[in-house]
Write a structure and sequence with these properties.
The protein is α+β, with helices and mostly antiparallel strands. The protein has helices spanning about 30-35, 45-55, 60-65; strands at about 80-95, 100-110, 115-125, 130-135. It has one domain: Roll (Nuclear Transport Factor 2, Chain: A). The chain has 3 helices and 4 strands. The protein is globular and about 40 Å long.
Length: about 140
């Protein structure tokens, strides 16, 4: 387990592709959100940035984008888990004019050399003007 706010992995190279799967370098994609230079405009973009935060070990960002009513007091990231690919399967609501939205996704990982995946249908709401992860449905 890592301490709250610590990073368990090195950040991708400035020109490396973003872990979220969008065709942009990490620094110009989710890196901007992680650094606090921009906010996710949709629930899907928040989901993608949260996946990238897991991939780079940015627990502070994960806590910051978690709704305060469901946010844990601290977050431990398993350094043996390496998040490698995100698939967005379905979205509902979560646009710039919405206050709620859902994203169903499949996240692929490697743990101790073995491939795995997890699927979740996540709920997002606007909190104080920004998208926040509420939890799994």
């Amino acid at each position: 387990m890592s301490r709250r706010g610590s990073r368990s992995r090195a950040l991708p190279a400035l020109t490396a592709s973003c872990p979220c799967g969008l065709p942009a370098p990490y620094r110009d994609c989710c890196g901007r959100l992680h650094r606090g230079e921009a906010a996710a405009s949709t629930a899907e973009l928040l989901m993608r940035s949260r996946f990238s935060a897991f991939a780079v070990g940015d627990g502070e960002y994960l806590l910051r984008t978690w709704h305060p009513t469901t946010r844990p007091p601290e977050l431990g990231l398993d350094p043996a888990l390496r998040w490698v690919k995100l698939e967005i399967l379905e979205t509902s609501g979560g646009g710039v004019l919405n206050t709620e939205g859902t994203v169903r996704f499949r996240a692929h990982y490697r743990e101790r050399g073995k491939a795995g995946e997890m699927e979740e249908h996540s709920r997002f709401v606007r909190h104080e003007g920004a998208w926040a992860y509420l939890g799994a449905m």
